[in-house]
Amino acid sequence: MATVNNPMRERLLEAAAELFYARGLRAVSVDKVIEKARTTKVTFYRHFKSKDDLIVAYLEVRATLERDGVDAAIAHGGGDVAATLGLIAEAVGGLACTPGFRGCPFINAAAEYPDADSAVRRTVDAHRHWYRTAFERLLAPLGLADPASAGDDLMLIRDGAMVGGYLDEPAAIAASFLRSAKAVVGL
Question: Which residue spans does the record list as DNA-binding (predicted)?
Answer without folding.
Answer: 29-48
